[in-house]
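Re: [ENG-882] Designed sequences occasionally contain unexpected residues at chain ends

Forwarding the minimal case from QA. Structure tokens:
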């Protein structure tokens, strides 16, 4: 695959992610407006921190008058799962990948973007990642901006409906590879079932959303690595 072709593929695969982000970010912008942020401030926050749970938590704390340290700690906890994703992506990159491309890729790791990266055969081409980020991140920031600027004028039902679109887009990311691998399909089904159990069971109510994701990710990935090891591909 040529460098230009990899970049164009990244733009193509990132387009539906960008549309999903744009829809969901409108509701995020409404939350930012309620916290007293301007459209520019909210959009800048989304450009620097592409994470729905982390931003929602941060905007809620800002609206409540929390201090910088509280906002930073809550954002860290809400986004902790991305540390695991970044570790996994470090194994997806060729050993010869320079530091700067690694930092750029690590800057924007989300559930959906991570799914697009992992679905790529062989080592991850940094130019493919550049294409995904270049189109996905502006969609998130623009949706946040419009949510602040005109979110209050949108009907509540429309905002709620837009929020559902991201889940449909995420299904579009995980379904194709799941159809090719029974092991992957079983792991996805198990992760959904256990996530629902951890959310509804009072026994696990003390765990935050980020903690539940980390716990389940480590447990299921360790089980899969033990029972269904994948032979390491030779890198060029």
């Amino acid at each position: 695959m040529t460098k230009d072709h990899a970049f164009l593929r990244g733009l193509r695969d990132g387009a539906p992610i960008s549309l999903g982000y744009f829809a969901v970010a409108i509701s995020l912008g409404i939350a930012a407006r309620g916290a007293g942020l301007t459209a520019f401030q909210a959009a800048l926050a989304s450009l620097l921190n592409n994470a729905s749970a982390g931003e929602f938590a941060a905007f809620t704390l800002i609206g409540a008058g929390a201090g910088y340290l509280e906002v930073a700690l809550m954002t860290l906890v809400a986004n902790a799962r991305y540390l695991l994703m970044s570790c996994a992506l470090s194994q997806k990159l060729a050993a010869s990948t320079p530091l700067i491309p690694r930092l750029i890729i690590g800057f924007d790791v989300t559930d959906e973007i991570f799914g697009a990266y992992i679905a790529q055969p062989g080592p991850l081409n940094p130019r493919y990642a550049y294409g995904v980020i270049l189109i996905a991140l502006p969609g998130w920031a623009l949706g946040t901006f419009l949510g602040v600027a005109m979110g209050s004028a949108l009907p509540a039902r429309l905002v709620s409906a837009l929020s559902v679109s991201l889940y449909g887009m995420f299904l579009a990311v995980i379904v194709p590879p799941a159809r090719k691998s029974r092991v992957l399909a079983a792991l996805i089904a198990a992760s959904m079932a256990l996530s629902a159990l951890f959310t509804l069971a009072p026994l696990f109510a003390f765990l935050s959303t980020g903690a539940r994701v980390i716990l389940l990710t480590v447990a299921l990935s360790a089980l899969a690595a033990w029972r269904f090891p994948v032979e390491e591909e030779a890198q060029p």
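QA comment: On inspection the terminal residues look reasonable. The chain is about 75% helix and 0% strand. Proposing we downgrade this to a documentation issue.
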